[in-house]
Queue: 2 jobs
Job 1
Amino acid sequence: MDALTLELLNGLSLFATLAIVALGLGIVFGLMGIINLAHGEFVMIGAYVAYVAHAGGLSHWLSLPLAAVVLFVLGACIEVGLIRRIHRRPEVTILATFGLSICLRQAVELIFTKDFRGVPNPVPGATRAFGVLFPTYRYVLIGIAVVVVVVTLLAFTRSRFGLTVRAIVADRDLADASGVRTGIANFCAFGIGAATAGIAGALVAPLGAIEPQAGLAYLPGAFLVVIVGGFHRLWGVIAGALVVAAVQTGVIHFYDAVWAQIAALVLAVLMLQLRRVPVEGATT
Amino acid sequence: MRRALAAGAACALAATVFSGAFGGYRSGQLSLFLVFAALAVSLDFVWGYTGILSLGQLLPFGIAAYTSAKIVSAAPSLGVPMLVAAAAVGAGVAAALGVAMLRRRPSAVVVGLLTLVLSLTLEQLAEQWRDVTGGFNGLTGVPRLGAFGAQLSDAAQDVVVSVLAIAAITAVGALVTRPIGAVLIGIRSNERRMEALGYKTVQIKIWAFTVGGALAGFAGALYVHRTSFVSPQIFGFSLATSMVLWTLVGGRGTIVGPVIGAMSINFASATLADVWLQYWTLATGLIFVAVVVVMPHGLVPSAQRLAGRPARRRQQPTLRPAATGVDALSGANAVDMVGDRAPSAAAPAIFEAHDVHKSFGFFRLLGGVTLTMESAELRCLIGPNGAGKSTLLDILSGQQGCQSGRVLVLGTEHTGRHAWEFARHGVSRKFQSPQLIDDLSVATNVAIAAWGTRSSPWRLIRRPWDTSVPQPALEILERTQLDRRLDMRAGDLSHGDKQWLEIAMAVAGDCRLLLLDEPTAGMTVAESLEAAALLREIHRSHRLPIVIVEHDMAFIRAVADRVTVLARGEVLADGTVAEVENDPDVQAIYAGVDS
């Protein structure tokens, strides 16, 4: 029974991490049709923000909003400098952000070198609840991640800003013609997507080594979440993270992390078989 | 084809001379980079030609490399046969992946992501599965290529690897100069058009993916002999990015491009990385982004354009009139062929749609339409916007399925069949907005249409470029003077010429029922009356059944034997032009009076 509870908590923790990492990816794809292969690098940079904040003597909790701001600015700059020139062509954005990810990784390596960095756990120790000991920081992580994901999704689905953005998704040209400022929406959507990645990075920073390649580890999981959850549906991120986390936790329990990843991959392929996707391009 | 072979032979000779002249280190580099060039060409074949953005081309490459390493380490004498086996392994991996992934027509984005994630997952798997893959350090000490019990020296192996890589690249280069090359480009630029011409596009895409996988697998085996080791990084993000960069910089959709890209970037890396490693990696990232934004076509096509040469100078098909008697359109023959397929004594109807329903969610497009054409006639389909005219044509040509009801074409049940099955049964379609293969010439567009109904990848490799085209298609080309612009790029034609080219393409195949969606849109009054005359003439002289969706009443009066009026997804009236025009219901619909 306790073992099961522990697995459930592990699964919940994985779900929260997957959801907050995939959130930005889902927003940027769902709203802008952009596949951001540099998203893992945004997460990695968020972790470095936490590292710098710690080195500067700031509290870890302050580094979360700080990472959000830094990444929002970085994301907005990238949107203006690069994405704006190529948007509406998903295939091209894949390639451009592929290149962008190399640039970001290498720039970080030039500044911080390849050495592993770390941030101390702000709430060390474990909490006993439901009859098992579980690291306190993971409870905090689950809580913060769920709040960030839900608030962000609510902002996009319930607020006036969200309505504007969704109008642009439904029909960009019509929204443009109706006087909606589509440029601003893109700018904000990409910035917010990056900001959530920054929070995710700062949030996971105390749990592992911080190094320039760290972002790559998040990419497969996040993309699986988006594929399983379905493109173009923002709440799909939560459903996708839930399914992927459940499958991975289940498989990890019996085998190991690699087979868990393969299981999630098979799941994604199966989802593709179930979902009817029309041929791209030609319309009459 | 001959040019490709000559170029390949010249390159092989140059590589041998280079190895002799510079020896050891340089020739080792050359052979490794040529293997990378072959890998880039395999990506280019799949992505640049066929349009499948595969970021997982490392899967067949790496799996074949591991397989070769395992087997050759155990039995060094198997080196040479293993090269062939590696191509088969690569082909098998790609075929399995293609079947699992491509059948549901995922978007380019989904394919790109899935293949990338799969490759990264395999990297982790290779690290974990120590017993078989040697874990993080991989398999080392793979013996050199050998034959008859003797191993090649390092220098000799470099030459052999270079020559084999060039041979493989040349083979693909020769392949794309065949008609299949044009067909792959067609699928890349307009899959829907190709399917409507009778191509099994999904099958051809899986075939192309498999051929690309075979080349990647072959390159993987060469790689493992050349470097004498293989490690999990072979599936990694870094090589995956690099190979896309080589292909992108050199130029997609050419064979020379990726080779130049792979060679130049690798030589630059090898030279600069020693002194400048971190900045060079940053520079590759910047080059990547810059190429995507500024020069998306890559070096070779851009250079060709600068030099004033057309970007795609391809072999042009010669169009010949089909020999008389084989003309599928000549009336007697058409009826005979129909008779063969349906044994019943009476000739079957041209098409029958029974009680066809189609809706999207709550929106009803067609609510039980029954429409038949008993004998070859020229029928116009009219109705207000949203009446379901285009949807009905879509269902009659298999572009869309219907929720209930039946569709029969020339006496054969076609309900629920694919568009290519309709096309192969003689249904040709012109879409509302012209759907051409913009990148190919006028002649190639017509030739592709003529091949469509009898095509498989292997046949398209062997068949000659010379194409016999049915008389009506040639008549249209002649009357519209398109026959003087046969080598012009189809995308550069005017709107009206595009319309005519598409109609010519529609009758160039094995056409026994022609469906035209607004053929005169964008034409002047005089032009559309001329179009009416030409269509009537084709209809009469070849007894070709035609259905035309139109709004222009002047055109309809000039052309139609019979008119069917659709309104709100139902048949409202049916009869001669005069009957329909005097029908009070029709007048009410068009005058906006609620009937």
Job 2
Amino acid sequence: METLLQQTLNGLVAGSIYALVALGYTMVYGILGLINFAHGEIVMVGALVALQTILFLSSAVPGLPPLVLLLAGVVVAVPACMALGYLIERIGYRRLRNAPRLAPLITAIGVSFLLQTLAMIIWGREFHVFPQLIDTAPMQPVDGVVVSPMQIFTIVVAFTLMGGLMLLVNKSRLGRAMRATAENHRVAGLMGINANGVIAATFIIGSGLAALAGVLFASNYAIAHYSMGFTPGLKAFTAAVLGGIGNLPGAMVGGLVLGLVESFGAGYIEHLSFGFLNSSYQDIFAFMILGAVLIFRPSGLLGERVADRA
Amino acid sequence: MKANKLFIAPAVACLAASLAAGTVQAKEVVVRIGHAGPLSGPAAAFGKDGENGARLAIEDANAKKLQIGGDSVKFELVSEDDQADPRTATTVAQRLTDAGVKGVVGHVTSGASVPAARIYENAGIPMITPSSTSPKLTQQGYKMTFRVIANDLQQGNALGKYAVEQLKATRIAVIDDRTAYGQGLADAFANAVKAAGGQVVGREFTNDKATDFMAILTKVRAANPDVVFYGGMDAQSGPLTRQMKQLGLTAKFLTGDGGCTGEMIKMAGDALSATTYCTQAGIPLDKMPGGTAFRTQFKQRYGSDIHVYAPYSYDATMALIEAMKVANSVEPTKYQPALKALNAQGVTGPLAFDQSGDIKGGAITVYNFSGGRWAPLQTLQ
């Protein structure tokens, strides 16, 4: 029972980071019908920029409290990634908006390579240690189950951000404009909505979330590296598809479900298969679930929500 | 005319003298020995170290003015850069065979040694690697492949025995990263644990790009092990030990040479303790029979310290030369049997090879984390 609870907690932590990243994929897809494969690299840039800021500050002003350092890292990383997201959209994708769908897709893969290589040049190939500024010492709320302040922080931040995004999209003027643009950006333009502005805002918000996800990821695992964005990016994309791509609550549910499935997969696949399979099938297990969901619900758990472009 | 005569006379005398000397002194032949390893890229320090060791051996041999097969032999080092890259390694191997080397010291990394071995095998030139530890290298069934350092299987075996016999562990969990290195090491470890009477209570897997080990560690924790073994590299074992601490998993942690690095100390941070152990193939320099003398000689010659494998590279070169002496021939086909049957004393210890070309009784050293670094605890043979 303790193991079950512990695995649930592990899954929630990983899943809430996936969910934050998945939101970026799904928002862009919802509006442009584009899979922005460079999104995972924004996670990486966010983590590395925050790391750079924290290292700089802690050597320039010794004795700053850890929370201030972390906050400073976030305050620099989030706008940096927002600017990066905007630039990618402005330079890479905007000209291709009316091109065949394959063109922006290939561009996205190219941008991903470009960002990774640039990061490799700037930060080198080595693994960096990301300082764990929030305590990771285990606490035992229930006997046999441990949770660290860092994990609680991760879950709380992720859920707050997701809630905030839902409010923004459903209640604000910008959100209404985003929903209208998702329906049909040309018609939205006729209604007096600045479609380019809304699309840029989508990239900016998604990139900001990705930067935060990067900082959370790096703080949890104390690691930062130029290729660290690839795996969470792929997992988050999977999560977005699992929940129904284009669907915001779907991305959140998809992320959490994927995190939990992975965690339980690693923990229980051996028992479930009577020792035939083991934890090296952890990822395969997650993709089997994805396959099964897509067979029975081709548009994901909560359904795809893409405007009909007929 | 007169002047000419005067000139010719000493010239003739000189010629006569040199001819006479020729009949007494053996003619000098140049024997080329190849060295291959990374001289550029991230592993360049290892390649340079190997090259320095080999050069020192060759200078020592030349100073002895050896006579082999009636000729006085002068050895010459031909050093090539394989960039630790499998494809470059094969090109370099071809270049060395074309240059007519009689033996090769190298390659340095396993990834380069394994494909290069085939080229030396086909060319009939013995190669002795000072530092590649992949078991695969000597499992290819080649007659010309040798190594002077313990391989990963020997490392896994030694660690497994150490865990059960010295650390008195009974419940042992084994994790690996599913790479050829990690899996090979972990399998050898698990088998040795069982052979020594220990119990493997968990066998988990991850991959060499993973950062999140919470799920498998939670499962491992439920099995309540007293030792956790990881077969893989420092980039994973660092975060893995942190997450063990985070989960309150207090078992001892063991890993192989992939985690026995400064990088591991950096990545793992305060998760390391005196109950974190790792192994390196070979023995610390101070414990080698000729270690202290070698360090002094090396420092004098190059003005810098030994990186890691220079003594092994020195011994590999000496093994080649020793076999040539025993066989009284520098021809690879003639001296290969002598190399196979070699029984010599090197800087690092006795030099003798088993059937597959691996060093007999290769040493493994266990380290633990103490005083901010890896401190040698014990050398296992």
